[in-house]
Write a structure and sequence with these properties.
Helix content of chain A: 40-55%
Shape of chain A: globular
Helix content of chain B: 25-40%
CATH superfamily of chain B: Fe-S hydro-lyase, tartrate dehydratase beta-type, catalytic domain
CATH class of chain B: Alpha Beta
Number of strands of chain A: 10
Distance between the termini of chain A: 14 Å
Distance between the termini of chain B: 41 Å
Number of domains of chain A: 2
Largest interface: A-B, 53 and 53 residues
Strand content of chain A: 15-25%
CATH architecture of chain B: Alpha-Beta Barrel
Number of domains of chain B: 1
Structural class of chain B: alpha/beta
CATH topology of chain B: fumarase
Radius of gyration of chain B: 17 Å
Oligomer: heterodimer
Order of helices and strands of chain A: EHHHEEHEEHEHEHHEEE
Chain lengths: 278, 196
């Protein structure tokens, strides 16, 4: 049994929250750079350059990449041989609270009915998974709501088939227009149950931007959806061009013979994510 | 560090405009045009809109005269010590759609956020001679540098959703809806459709 103190977890989460808000990871920076280099729209090309400059200023001057520093989404993989000393959930929430306070990040979490801000950006949303081994992996994905609000879940009839899924995803993405801050990353969760599909769609966003699915048939669909979305010409922020989306990531899970859940979780170009292995 | 790849952001053919808009400057804006704004503007998002309209419902006076002004939809992140403001890019505009026509009636001449406006807002803009601009979403750090002064005007308890007065310099934005009633998002969609 490996012991991990909850205070270590709390500090790690605090650091992840601050780093995520200011320092974009190479996967999204590379994707934006490649998009800028192949962009044909003049205004869109200028805006892509501005987004790269923005990332640079954010990191250098410690100003968040985007003022919407999001709801905290935490994905934990806990090795079965790990024993955590202290209250894990308390440590996670404390880490988020400290990170948002000490990092001068915007607190955007409120009660859904009264709309009164909790003042701490907590509670963060936590997903736990037990895995073999003695390591603890923490992934932090602060999610802004320009993009989150454009997400959806539908239970299609199985007769809709692959064409129905593809059509639905493309229609939803295009209907989102410039609201979710394109160029976006489209997470698709296909199959499972109602809640599983939604979780798959969000987890799809954790894949490095543009990395294909390991399943050849899924990878082919990802590529087709990306091509068809970008062919519509909405482009960066709806200003035209060839870069409405940077990537489509689809995760699948077997589902009931009578069911075909499709969840779409849209991520903006300010794709902030950080991870630590303890 | 992979960040410093490429040139700093550049824009050519920037149309420089002073705020608040003169009638001539307002009329000169054309859908699709990239503009550089300098001068004063007011801010507000969900809570500020809700409260402004609640005051109007009660027949009370607003804390600010919006006639002739630009209202920017933003909820900035907190300023670090010694700084004017934190990140301050636009929020999505459709959430303000249900409130906007009432503010246009009071003489507000411009709004700025991101994403398309409703048919009702577009009609109200044409009726009242107002424009809508898109600021660059997700460029909060860059735009923070364009804000030279920030002053709290009302609704302090709403935190980042309060009403502020900003002084901006060379703040970039794209004209979406102009006085002629054109909508740049629609023009882009139509152009893309014609190419096929």
């Amino acid at each position: 049994m490996r012991e991990i103190d909850s205070t270590e977890i709390s500090k790690a989460v605090r650091d992840l929250a601050i780093a995520a808000a200011h320092d974009l990871e190479p996967d999204i920076l590379d994707a934006l750079l490649a998009a800028r280099d192949r962009e044909t729209g003049k205004l869109a090309g200028n805006i892509l350059q501005l987004l790269l400059t923005n990332a640079n200023i954010a990191s250098r001057d410690r100003i968040p990449v985007c003022q919407d520093t999001g709801t905290g989404i935490l994905f934990l993989e806990i090795g079965q041989e790990v024993h955590i000393q202290g209250d894990l959930h308390e440590a996670l929430q404390e880490g988020v609270q400290l990170g948002y306070e000490e990092g001068y990040l915007r607190k955007s979490v409120c009660d859904p009915l009264t709309r009164i801000n909790t003042g701490t950006n907590t509670p963060a949303v936590v997903h736990l998974e037990m895995v073999p081994g003695d390591r603890l992996i923490i992934r932090f994905l602060p999610k802004g709501c320009g993009s989150e609000n454009m997400s959806s879940l539908v239970m299609l009839p199985p007769a809709a088939g692959i064409e129905g899924v593809v059509r639905h995803v493309i229609d939803r993405v295009l209907a989102a227009g410039s609201n979710p801050c394109p160029p976006m990353i489209v997470g698709v969760g296909l199959g499972g149950s109602f809640e599983k599909a939604a979780l798959l769609a969000k987890k799809a966003l954790l894949r490095p931007v543009g990395e294909k699915s390991e399943r050849a048939d899924v990878a082919e669909l990802e590529e087709r959806m990306l091509r068809e979305i970008n062919a519509q010409g909405q482009g960066v922020h709806g200003f035209g061009g060839i870069t409405t989306a940077l990537a489509v990531h689809m995760e699948t899970f077997p589902c009931h013979i009578a069911s075909l859940p499709v969840a779409i979780n849209i991520q903006c170009h300010a794709h902030r994510h950080k991870e630590i292995v303890i | 560090m992979s960040l410093l790849r490429g040139e700093p952001a550049f824009f050519d053919n920037l149309h420089e405009v002073l705020l608040p808009f003169s009638n001539e400057a307002l009329a000169s804006l054309a859908a699709g045009q990239l503009v550089s704004l300098s001068g004063t503007l007011y801010t507000g998002r969900d809570q500020t809109h809700r409260r402004l309209c609640a005051l109007l419902d009660e027949g009370k006076e607003l804390p600010v005269n919006l006639a002739g002004q630009l209202l920017y939809y933003v909820g900035p992140s907190p300023a670090r010590p010694g700084r004017v403001i934190g990140a301050a890019g636009p929020t999505t505009s459709y959430r303000m759609d249900s409130y906007t026509p009432r503010l246009l009636e009071l003489g507000l001449v411009a709004t700025m956020g991101k994403g398309a406006r409703s048919a009702e807002v577009r009609q109200a803009m044409i009726r009242h001679g107002a424009v809508y601009l898109a600021a660059i979403g997700g460029a909060g750090a860059f735009l923070s540098k364009c804000i030279k002064k920030s002053e709290l005007v009302a609704f302090a308890d709403a935190g980042p959703e309060a009403l502020f007065r900003f002084e901006v310099e060379n703040f970039p934005a794209v004209v979406i809806n102009d006085l002629a009633g054109r909508d740049y998002y629609e023009l882009v969609a139509a152009a893309s459709h014609c190419e096929k």
